[in-house]
Amino acid sequence: MINNLLINFAHEHKKVVPISLFVAVLCLCLVIGHLLEENRWVNESIVAILVGCIAGSILLLVTKGKSSHILTFDEELFFIYLLPPIIFNAGFQVKKKQFFHNFLTIMMFGVIGVFISTSIITGGSWWLFPKLNFLGLSARDYLAIGTIFSSTDTVCTLQVLHQDETPLLYSIVFGEGVVNDATSVVLFNAVQKLDVSRLSGRAFRVLGDFLYLFSSSTALGVLTGLLTAYILKALSFGRHSSVREISLMMLMAYLSYMLAELLELSGILTVFFCGILMSHYAWHNVTEISRITTRHVFATISFIAETFIFLYVGMDALDIEKWRMTKLSSGSLMGIYGCLILLILVGRAAFVFPLSAFANSMMSRRAESGSSITFKHQIIIWWAGLMRGAVSIALAFKQFTFSGVTSDPVNATMITNTIIVVLFTTLVFGFLTKPLIRYMLPHNNGTRRNTNHEAAGTPGEDLNLPLLSFEESAATNISRAKESLSMFIGSPAYTIHHYWRKFDDAYMRPLFGGPHHNRSRC
Amino acid sequence: MINNLLINFAHEHKKVVPISLFVAVLCLCLVIGHLLEENRWVNESIVAILVGCIAGSILLLVTKGKSSHILTFDEELFFIYLLPPIIFNAGFQVKKKQFFHNFLTIMMFGVIGVFISTSIITGGSWWLFPKLNFLGLSARDYLAIGTIFSSTDTVCTLQVLHQDETPLLYSIVFGEGVVNDATSVVLFNAVQKLDVSRLSGRAFRVLGDFLYLFSSSTALGVLTGLLTAYILKALSFGRHSSVREISLMMLMAYLSYMLAELLELSGILTVFFCGILMSHYAWHNVTEISRITTRHVFATISFIAETFIFLYVGMDALDIEKWRMTKLSSGSLMGIYGCLILLILVGRAAFVFPLSAFANSMMSRRAESGSSITFKHQIIIWWAGLMRGAVSIALAFKQFTFSGVTSDPVNATMITNTIIVVLFTTLVFGFLTKPLIRYMLPHNNGTRRNTNHEAAGTPGEDLNLPLLSFEESAATNISRAKESLSMFIGSPAYTIHHYWRKFDDAYMRPLFGGPHHNRSRC
């Protein structure tokens, strides 16, 4: 019947059929995800991928092997509509105190880590692929493969970790996840621009490009965020309607991403910092209703976009055309998969453990021994970054297809490789994540001590943090108040962070909005 | 500089430039609209159209007369992405008590009215256009013109009327606006299917088609709404996350529209009734946070979509290509505009005054003399429906262009005619609306009496209505409680509505959610 519909309406409603089907599958996915929430093995991403696979198989049967996906993959769709809300929401919901407190560690993992991982994966595949009879990739392709498989997807681990139980770990995994996404996209674009024929001595150029992209994108995001905050404060929209406030926040966030893309900067970084600035200033200038609405609607849109992507990956895994195009034997294909997954494991281990040791030594010099990264934590950080997700897929499509279509067997093989790696890491590694973390971090035991230490780092701001829910805030504020008092009597930890807070209180908040810290009033 | 950008990025970022520009203009529009809110002449639509015109002129200058709009009009964009949220929000925010209490009157205006208005405009243009040297339109075109210019845009009037001061008037204008949109789209589609060569005796067929479309679309909307309510109630998502609840409501609403389009029903009617059902049942099954969020996010999306459309109309008015294509003298063009506006005025008067008289006589028979439609109200209802808006534009593009492009001079003329009529009615009639209503209905004077009468009609439900804001509900609930008590001692008004309420309490609410009326417990 669906087949008939497809034919009947193909000319008249060319978008109605796929959109209806996709939305229906999305709804199904939501319901199944909810029902399986208590399950100890699966998570959102796994559910979406599996539902996608099932929908793909049904579609294959109905269309008699013609097609397994409803929508053809459009990297534009991904980079223009799906990615911006996900990254903006990450910035908007990030616990800023934790994020900035561990800023150096996060940046180290997210930036230096990607460089290390990219070089290992690029070098490894350059060395191994020809041995597996997989030829035909250019130097640029190998560099792209390095960045494609260096972008992690930490959603799965974050669903298992608890922000209140292991704040240091959570903020590192979360922060690294976002910075890592941004870094790999920026690096991917830097590699694209590279003139590979004159590669010698140009590594410096890539680094320069990277630093320029990184700093100017961040600046643009900060500026847009501040502008939004200023407009909201100066005009105090809320007097008349919260609809305007919400619209303005949504539109400005999107505009920041688009402007960055227009100026050939990294939209991801821009929209991430725009999100942080908006939740730090702009969010305080709007009515209570707008605060609740924005917080939840950004989370909702991000959630839908993520589910959408994983559903798509599940469906695309069954795209028979691409499988047929590959000219390699199944033996060498298995070899390639194994090789890629091995490189991912090694590439990540190569920076997580050394950089953790470095971070620990830095921290012990700063006499904050309690917040060191234990070996168990290092393993979890390593594990959390093994999953590959939406960004990998999108970058692979950008590198190896033309508007989602490819006729070259080598390119088709790289697309299927990416999909297999994403499926394998998400399903197998994802499956093992919950049990692993439960084994490594038994609840309310040992890790609790860290909480006090971390939460006490910089008191005051937590009181001004966007509340997650009504009930939560009331209960936690009391305990936080106690912590901040004991902290204040103890060690006031004069760091960059402290001076920033002073500056923030004295100049930024009066201009751009947001409540004042209690501490600065003492 | 924009010109350079346009050329540089045309191949690489073909969507980035227009989207960025459009979003920036939208933001500007929001800020200007806010600043002018206190102004007694302008309203949202006028601001958006004027900003669109200005942006269009700047673009014309920058591109040296090549193009005045950023995006080419895509009727798909309008019918798939912009219209559904606007109509869903109308259903979701409608004051159900008022709407259903005046259901018959609203239906009379919205359905019979469109039929009368369509026949007058079709007949009139058929008779007058050839006399103005405007030839080349087919019978189907004339029928389409009738429906195109029968769809009203009441946004402008609703911004001036106050729901609490003139509830009867507000609910009729609001309800008619929605039903009218739906009716004209359904009628437009029915006319499209008509085999015009065998027109004789087929008027009955159009009516049959119309009734089928109307009833099955409504049924689909009701079913989707009930299904959503049932899923939300049975699974009680809120225990885990409000994100899933909000996602499900958004996706199901959209799905209802898409399903209707897929089954060749009227998506507008479906999504409207889906909105009503969702706010009546589903909305009560979600957490407090989801309620606030959904209420405001639907309003926001609808607001953005509306502004988007009016902005577009403003830009398109300066599309020089279409103007050049017209082969008529400016004299006959003015004649056509005048003729169309005259027909709109006459076509609307031809049903508002007779139907009002009929409604009054029906009401007096039901011994509810207080809620009759006074002559002043009739004039306001007549005036409120004179504006033409987004739906007219979209239908005109659907009838007279192929994907927004036309090369036929007659069709190009009809497009520019529609744009001129929309601009004229929105700007001139819209401009006069605020002063007219202030003159006809001086605040807090005379109309107040009606309020008590209406608000007392069916007490109880108001208490369960989605709250508009925290402060408001507390204050109004007390006065409403008083009203409902005096009402209960007075006349219990046994109507269909009363029996429906009993049925709702006994069977529907226990199954699909929503609080119980106090009255049924007495």
UniProtKB/TrEMBL annotation, chains A, B:
<feature type="transmembrane region" description="Helical">
    <location>
        <begin position="266"/>
        <end position="284"/>
    </location>
</feature>
<dbReference type="InterPro" id="IPR006153">
    <property type="entry name" value="Cation/H_exchanger_TM"/>
</dbReference>
<dbReference type="InterPro" id="IPR004709">
    <property type="entry name" value="NaH_exchanger"/>
</dbReference>
<feature type="transmembrane region" description="Helical">
    <location>
        <begin position="16"/>
        <end position="36"/>
    </location>
</feature>
<keyword id="KW-0050">Antiport</keyword>
<keyword id="KW-0813">Transport</keyword>
<keyword id="KW-0739">Sodium transport</keyword>
<feature type="transmembrane region" description="Helical">
    <location>
        <begin position="412"/>
        <end position="432"/>
    </location>
</feature>
<feature type="transmembrane region" description="Helical">
    <location>
        <begin position="296"/>
        <end position="315"/>
    </location>
</feature>
<dbReference type="GO" id="GO:0051453">
    <property type="term" value="P:regulation of intracellular pH"/>
</dbReference>
<dbReference type="GO" id="GO:0015385">
    <property type="term" value="F:sodium:proton antiporter activity"/>
</dbReference>
<feature type="transmembrane region" description="Helical">
    <location>
        <begin position="379"/>
        <end position="400"/>
    </location>
</feature>
<feature type="transmembrane region" description="Helical">
    <location>
        <begin position="335"/>
        <end position="358"/>
    </location>
</feature>
<feature type="transmembrane region" description="Helical">
    <location>
        <begin position="106"/>
        <end position="129"/>
    </location>
</feature>
<feature type="transmembrane region" description="Helical">
    <location>
        <begin position="210"/>
        <end position="231"/>
    </location>
</feature>
<keyword id="KW-0630">Potassium</keyword>
<keyword id="KW-0406">Ion transport</keyword>
<dbReference type="InterPro" id="IPR018422">
    <property type="entry name" value="Cation/H_exchanger_CPA1"/>
</dbReference>
<protein>
    <recommendedName>
        <fullName>Sodium/hydrogen exchanger</fullName>
    </recommendedName>
</protein>
<feature type="domain" description="Cation/H+ exchanger transmembrane">
    <location>
        <begin position="26"/>
        <end position="437"/>
    </location>
</feature>
<keyword id="KW-1133">Transmembrane helix</keyword>
<comment type="similarity">
    <text>Belongs to the monovalent cation:proton antiporter 1 (CPA1) transporter (TC 2.A.36) family.</text>
</comment>
<keyword id="KW-0915">Sodium</keyword>
<feature type="transmembrane region" description="Helical">
    <location>
        <begin position="45"/>
        <end position="65"/>
    </location>
</feature>
<dbReference type="Pfam" id="PF00999">
    <property type="entry name" value="Na_H_Exchanger"/>
</dbReference>
<dbReference type="GO" id="GO:0098719">
    <property type="term" value="P:sodium ion import across plasma membrane"/>
</dbReference>
<keyword id="KW-0633">Potassium transport</keyword>
<dbReference type="GO" id="GO:0015386">
    <property type="term" value="F:potassium:proton antiporter activity"/>
</dbReference>
<dbReference type="GO" id="GO:0005886">
    <property type="term" value="C:plasma membrane"/>
</dbReference>
<keyword id="KW-0812">Transmembrane</keyword>
<dbReference type="InterPro" id="IPR038770">
    <property type="entry name" value="Na+/solute_symporter_sf"/>
</dbReference>
<keyword id="KW-0472">Membrane</keyword>
<feature type="transmembrane region" description="Helical">
    <location>
        <begin position="77"/>
        <end position="94"/>
    </location>
</feature>
